[in-house]
Write a structure and sequence with these properties.
Layout: E1 3-6, E2 16-22, E3 29-30, E4 35-40, E5 45-49, E6 54-59, E7 66-68, E8 71-77, E9 88-89, H1 126-131, H2 136-145, H3 163-171, H4 216-231, E10 234-242, H5 244-259, H6 266-280, E11 287-288, E12 293-294, E13 301-303, E14 305-307, E15 310-312, E16 315-316, H7 324-339, E17 353-356, E18 376-380, E19 384-391, E20 397-412, H8 418-433
Parallel strand pairs: 13-17, 17-18
Antiparallel strand pairs: 1-8, 2-4, 2-7, 3-6, 4-5, 6-8, 8-9, 10-20, 11-12, 13-16, 14-15, 18-20, 19-20
Helix pairs in contact: 2-3, 6-7, 6-8
Length: 440
């Protein structure tokens, strides 16, 4: 049996990757989980392992080529087994497969005169934009037959049209034979998602202005944010936290953690407090597909990392199984490798809850957008000294200096009630303000 090796998804906003080099050549024996090629994306450089034992039958994408996520880049199977030719996606046939039952040309009259080719990209929905994306092979076939790709219901990743889709479309008689289908939302979860039309905005460009097209990464981030705001019922609640206890513990144990390979930061304590709250309120760790709530069995904590070229959210898998030291090591390691594009594919997937910390740039608080398909995100504001009222043991009040900061929870009100969100945040606040030193 042959196994497809695909270009992996390296984060929510990554849509394509480039093969840097192959470490194996066609005909070489490979073992499951053995590194066989290296890729680079806008965010991550990674070594990709073989999915199964066998022989590398075919390399479909050569070093230096860039292909979309989900594209089959190689085939592994038994010695002597056919591996196919040419690049393809997982659901489409290889170029060596016959298509004799498909007409060589589509009648000119069958081409739909109304196509997205005549619609400005700014007036398309994010879903429609994605449906116009495909592999070079598919685009070539579409051009040869005068077919508008957006009129085809794709079965590939995010509704993309595969080679099999377009050949079947031609065989069925072309555009007139296509059954109309509603746009498929590109951001998970698909069910119930709302496709929004981004209005076209006229911009007067002056002689001293510079116009640069958005990078692919920025375009995908834009799509994801628009889709999320249209899909989830965003509500935010904000709590102030006294970090005095946490800061004392951090200063006291910082050196010992460094000696053991950890990095004891406020984020480490926040992660531990968030895990505790997620265990107590599992609805906040859930997902929503438009019809049902999916209660996640694992707590996979995303820690957003700001990069010069965008944003990535490496994931601490099974964070609830880690001690404070384990969390400090993992967060430091993921953050460092995110900034040097060294994350692995499984370190940017499976997210169930996110912590984002714009406070490091001085932000007091914000209203973060929920990453789909999760239902909540925690925003961390700057931590600073503030004057606060302090109640003395005798009951009298005085003014004093406290180390404080705001925490904001963005949550999907379709799934999480305000009372639950506030109880969740109250748990985090109490955990941080009376942190158990035995957990150190």
């Amino acid at each position: 049996m042959a196994f497809d090796v695909i270009m992996p998804q390296m984060g929510e906003s990554v849509a394509e990757g480039t093969i840097v080099r192959w470490l194996k050549k066609e005909g070489d024996a490979v073992e499951r989980d053995e590194i066989i090629f290296e890729i680079t994306t806008d965010k991550v450089d990674a070594e990709i392992p073989a999915p199964e034992n066998g022989v590398l039958l075919t390399i479909k994408v050569q070093a230096g080529e860039t292909v979309e996520v989900g594209t089959v880049v190689a085939v592994i199977g038994d010695a002597g087994e056919a591996g196919g030719d040419g690049p393809s996606t997982g659901s489409e046939p290889t170029a060596s497969e016959p298509a004799s039952d498909a007409p060589t040309e589509a009648p000119a009259a069958a081409v739909d005169p109304v196509s997205t080719a005549s619609v400005p990209a700014a007036e398309m929905t994010a879903a429609e934009l994605r449906r116009t994306k495909s592999t070079p092979v598919v685009r070539k076939i579409a051009a040869e037959h005068g077919i508008d790709i957006s009129q085809i219901s794709g079965t590939g990743l995010d509704g993309r049209v595969t080679k099999k889709d377009i050949l079947g479309f031609i065989a069925a008689g072309g555009p007139r034979a296509a059954a109309p289908t509603p746009p498929t939302p590109s951001a998970p979860p698909a069910a119930g998602a709302v496709a929004l039309t981004v209005p076209k905005v006229a911009v007067n460009v002056g002689p001293s202005d510079r116009v640069e097209p958005m990078s692919r990464m920025r375009q995908v981030i834009s799509d994801r944010m628009i889709e999320s705001t249209g899909y989830s019922a965003h509500v935010h609640t904000c709590f102030e936290v006294d970090y005095g206890k946490v800061n004392a513990l951090r200063r006291s144990h910082k050196t010992s953690y460094t000696d053991r390979g950890g990095r004891l930061t406020f984020t480490t304590f926040l992660a531990k407090a968030a895990v505790s709250a997620l265990q107590k309120f599992p609805i906040v760790n859930a997902a929503h597909d438009g019809e049902s709530v999916v209660y996640r069995g694992d707590i996979n904590l995303g820690i957003a990392v700001a990069l010069d070229w965008g944003l990535i959210v490496p994931v601490v898998s099974n964070a609830d199984r880690l001690s404070l030291l384990g969390l400090s090591r993992k967060i430091a390691d993921l953050g460092a490798r995110a900034r040097t594009k060294k994350l692995k594919p499984d370190e940017v997937g499976g997210l169930t809850f996110t912590i984002t910390n714009p406070g490091v740039f001085g932000s007091q608080w914000g209203t973060p957008i929920i990453p789909q398909p999760t239902v909540a995100i925690l925003g961390v504001g700057t931590i600073e000294k503030r004057v606060r009222v302090i109640t003395l043991p005798d009951g009298s009040d005085t003014l004093g200096i406290k180390l404080c900061g705001y925490l904001t929870l963005g949550f999907d009100h379709r799934v999480i009630d305000g009372a639950v969100a506030d109880a969740f945040m109250g748990h985090i606040k109490r955990t941080l303000e009376s942190f158990d030193e035995t957990a150190m």
